[in-house]
Design brief:
Elements lengths: L11 E6 L6 H17 L5 E2 L7 H13 L4 E6 L5 H10 L4 E6 L14 H14 L11 E2 L1 H22 L1 E6 L14 H5 L3 E5 L1 H10 L6 H12 L9 H18 L5 E6 L4 H6 L4 H9 L4 E3 L3 H14 L3 E8 L3 H6 L12 E6 L12 E4 L1 H7 L9 E7 L3 E10 L5 E11 L8 E6 L3 H10 L6 E5 L4 H10 L4 E4 L15
Parallel strand pairs: 1-2, 1-3, 3-4, 4-5, 6-7, 6-8, 8-9, 13-16, 15-18
Antiparallel strand pairs: 10-11, 10-17, 11-16, 12-13, 14-15, 14-17, 15-16
């Protein structure tokens, strides 16, 4: 089960605005129709009773919003709306804001019943620009009460991402390793997003691990692991130390969350880790993801953030993988993938040592990490390199996503939707065969051209729309997506 404590609860508030030369009753009536429709659909929305016509109404509305502990606001134009006060309200509210408006209802009531919100939105958006405000504007932001409630439903996961990020702390252990310069990135943009970061050494990690020895929760966690692994529990004698590590991380999280509400980790996990801890942490990482507290290896701070955003967008377990290797041609042909509409270049294998939660795996067992074994104990049976969770990832819808700062401190992101195929990957580690339309071109002209790292976060659901809108609200302008055939990337040679 996911840990609901590491994500925000979105508390929605709906407030109507009215321009003083239009009937205020029109805004009241249309707002109450939205509240009623939301109630019919079991969607909880707090009704802000004040109708905003002027600046004093804004101040009173903010007091009401604070008393009702609203953290996500919908500003509803029941008529033309007062562009100054409504945009001032958006500016002064501290959380995510959606603006939408009422459509006209009937040809029989286009005199006193005409609201002109279609026009009012134009004025509002101009004024938002004057105030340098970013808000969520639905694809077509006008409609009936039912339409508005459907828009609000799409706003909820967007709000969850924004609120979660603003209240997030990232814990790191260890310097980002030389062999993974791809994971190096400036941390200043994290602070710009409202994220706190607490950097610690590998010795700090070893210290908290040692201090967790004999903790009363170790036995409980060990028994949970035993039950979860079932027949895949190849190293039962290792579970005690793994449980101690999980307890140590959870204790650290609780003792150091400080002024923030939510926390995630980025930890250097090799090669020194194995010598001192006597295991690899992959399985524990998978269990932490299952709690909604992702851990990115190789101190990949932006990888951890990407994984957390995927979790917030879907409320489902996410993971982080390498965009790792090509799919052999005989595997492509042997599974008749061309006949299913996939080009060979649409495919790649996602892989990691063994950090993906059991819920996201079709098959799994605890194993040793082959690459680390080659490096650290090549002449002996696996010992300190044990502790991965290996197997085939479950087939189904998937979104790959990454937010990243460049060395020049410019924020970028990419999003692509596709699927994991139900084909055995026939390799080690956690692995799956991914199919994403035009992945070959996306890989060349987005991932390589824009110098994204090898790690990608993986959401086990199509959530590109939510992530795209959340990125816009965060002010990220450079967002790459997998363009369809004959739509060209910037810099792509059209003469090829």
């Amino acid at each position: 089960m996911l840990n609901s404590k590491n994500k925000p609860e979105v508390k929605l508030g709906l407030i109507a605005v009215s321009r003083d030369c239009f009937p205020i009753e029109l805004s009241k009536k249309r707002k109450m129709a939205v509240i009623s429709e939301a109630k019919n659909q079991n969607l909880k929305i707090e009704d802000i009773e004040i109708i905003v016509e002027n600046e004093n109404d804004v101040l009173n509305a903010l007091n009401e919003i604070e008393k009702k502990k609203i953290n996500s606001l919908i500003i509803f134009l029941g008529n033309f709306g007062p562009e100054g006060p409504l945009t001032m309200l958006a500016q002064k509210f501290s959380g995510p804001v959606m603006i939408c408006a009422a459509a006209e209802e009937s040809q029989t009531d286009l005199i006193n019943g005409r609201g002109d919100a279609y026009c009012g939105l134009l004025s509002a958006c101009y004024n938002l620009g004057l105030r340098n405000q970013r808000i969520y504007l639905p694809e077509y932001p006008l409609g009936t009460a039912m339409d508005i409630v459907n828009m609000i439903r799409e706003f909820i996961p967007i709000s969850r991402v924004i609120i979660g990020i603003k209240n997030l702390k990232i814990f790191t252990f260890g310097p980002r390793p030389q062999d993974f310069y791809t994971c190096h990135a400036p941390i200043k943009p994290l602070f710009d997003l409202g994220i706190e970061i607490m950097e610690n050494s590998e010795l700090d990690l070893l210290d908290i691990f040692n201090k967790a020895k004999n903790h009363p929760n170790i036995k409980k966690i060990r028994d949970e692991m035993k039950q979860e692994l079932g027949d895949g529990n190849q190293y039962p004698e290792l579970l005690e130390r793994l449980a101690q590590y999980e307890v140590a991380l959870m204790n650290f999280y609780q003792e150091n969350i400080g002024a923030k509400e939510f926390g995630i980790f980025a930890i250097k996990c090799w090669p020194a880790f194995e010598e001192y801890f006597q295991f690899v942490p992959c399985y524990v990482n998978s269990r932490m993801a299952k709690k909604g507290i992702p851990i990115a290896c190789e101190v990949d701070v932006y990888g951890a953030l990407s994984e957390y955003m995927a979790y917030l967008a879907t409320e489902k377990i996410s993971t982080i993988l390498d965009i790792n290797n090509t799919v052999p041609k005989d595997m492509y042909e042997g599974n008749h993938l061309g006949e299913q509409g996939f080009k060979h270049t649409d495919l790649f294998m996602g892989f990691h040592c063994g950090n993906t939660a059991t819920d996201c795996m079709k098959t799994y067992k605890m194993n040793f990490q082959l690459i680390m074994h080659r490096l650290l104990e090549p002449e002996s049976d696996p010992n300190i390199t044990r502790g991965t969770l290996e197997g085939q990832m479950k087939p189904g819808d998937v979104t790959i996503f990454r937010i990243q700062s460049t060395p020049e401190v410019q924020m970028r992101a990419y999003i692509a939707q596709g699927e994991i195929l139900d084909i055995p990957p026939k390799t080690f580690g956690t692995a799956g065969i991914f199919a994403i339309s035009e992945m070959g071109r996306f890989y060349r002209y987005a991932l390589l051209e824009k110098q994204f790292p090898h790690h990608t976060s993986v959401a086990f659901k199509h959530c590109g729309k939510t992530l795209f809108e959340a990125l816009k609200l965060l002010g990220i302008k450079d967002i790459s997506v997998n363009l369809p055939e004959k739509s060209y990337f910037n810099g792509e040679n059209i003469f090829k």
